[in-house]
Design the sequence.
C-alpha cells in the first residue's frame, strides 16, 4: 500500500560521537541516492553479427538531495553546514516513512543553498554525495 512521505527522517553523524546520528530538523523533501552501473564497451572487430558488446563497469551513486526549512538553531542543520565547510566524510542515514533505510558515507559538496521568496519561508537545499556503497534496507 502506498504511503505519504510524512515521518521521513534524515540524520548526519555527530562530530563528537561517531556512530550517533543527529536528526536534521525541518525536512520538507528528501531524494535518496540512486545507483547506476557504467557500461563498458568491449566490442571488437569479431563481435557477433556486427553488434556492440558491453560489460558492467564501476558502480556510482548520484547525490541525495535534502530540502529543509532553514533554522540556524537546528543541531542537524548546524552539523550539515560544518560538514560542508570542513570537507569531512561522515555517515548519513535516511529512513523513509515506509521503513526503507538508506545508510552511506559521504560528504556535502557545497554549503546549503538557501532560497528566499517574498512572503515565503527560507529554505535550504543540501546535496549529500555518497563515497562508496549505499546500503538500502527494505522495511
Sequence:
Amino acid at each position: 500500500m502506498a504511503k505519504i512521505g510524512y515521518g521521513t527522517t534524515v540524520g548526519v553523524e555527530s562530530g563528537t560521537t561517531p556512530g550517533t546520528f543527529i536528526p536534521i530538523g525541518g525536512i520538507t523533501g528528501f531524494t535518496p541516492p540512486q545507483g547506476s552501473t557504467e557500461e563498458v564497451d568491449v566490442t571488437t572487430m569479431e563481435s557477433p553479427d556486427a553488434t556492440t558488446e558491453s560489460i558492467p563497469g564501476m558502480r556510482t551513486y548520484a547525490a541525495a538531495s535534502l530540502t529543509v526549512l532553514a533554522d540556524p538553531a537546528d543541531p542537524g542543520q548546524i552539523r550539515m553546514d560544518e560538514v560542508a565547510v570542513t570537507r569531512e566524510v561522515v555517515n548519513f542515514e535516511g529512513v523513509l516513512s515506509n521503513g526503507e533505510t538508506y545508510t552511506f558515507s559521504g560528504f556535502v559538496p557545497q554549503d546549503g543553498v538557501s532560497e528566499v521568496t517574498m512572503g515565503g519561508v527560507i529554505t535550504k537545499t543540501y546535496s549529500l554525495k555518497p563515497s562508496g556503497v549505499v546500503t538500502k534496507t527494505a522495511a
User: Anything to note?
Assistant: The chain has one domain: 9-33+63-137.
